[in-house]
């Protein structure tokens, strides 16, 4: 059992844990879509969070070069590292998901025909 725990820690924390400074209030956060290369990290993150892995596409919060939290695009299920201060990152993920859903509901305009008509008239 300890071998498995050591394997999980070494695989998930590729960078030194010292990057997480105690008492630090803010970390730069990058929100992006999960990639193929992130699947193993997301599975490890789900195991660390004692949750099932996310199914389908997801958004991830990358902090200090590591994925700290993720949210599924099809639902609002979140996985996050329980040993790190991930609450602000999860809030940002939910906000970005709401923005993406709002743009999907908005009707898209055909801008190209207007641009062509203006160019032809000029």
Describe this structure in words.
The chain is an alpha+beta fold and 122 residues long. The protein has a single domain, classed as Gcn5-related N-acetyltransferase (GNAT) (Aminopeptidase). It is 42% helix and 17% strand. The protein has 4 helices and 4 strands. It has a 4-stranded antiparallel beta sheet, sandwiched between helices. The chain is elongated and about 70 Å long.
Helix and strand arrangement:
Elements: H1 2-12, E1 29-33, H2 39-48, E2 58-63, E3 66-72, E4 78-80, H3 87-105, H4 111-121
Antiparallel strand pairs: 1-2, 2-3, 3-4
Instruction: Label the overall shape.
Output: elongated
| Tally of helical runs | 4
Q: Mind summarizing the main beta sheet?
A: 4 strands, antiparallel
Output the radius of gyration.
Answer: 19 Å
Class, according to the CATH hierarchy? Answer: Alpha Beta
Enumerate the spans where pLDDT stays under 50 for 5 or more consecutive residues: none
User: What gap, in angstroms, lies between the N and C termini?
Assistant: 74 Å
CATH superfamily: Gcn5-related N-acetyltransferase (GNAT)
Assign the structural class, choosing from mainly alpha, mainly beta, alpha/beta, alpha+beta, or little secondary structure: alpha+beta
Roughly what fraction of the amino acids lie in strands?
Answer: 15-25%
- Average pLDDT score: 81
Q: Please bin the fraction of helical residues.
A: 40-55%
Number of domains: 1
* Strand order across the largest sheet: 1-2-3-4
- CATH topology type: Aminopeptidase
Order of helices and strands: HEHEEEHH
Would you count the extended β strands for me?
Answer: 4
What would you say the CATH architecture is?
Answer: 3-Layer(aba) Sandwich
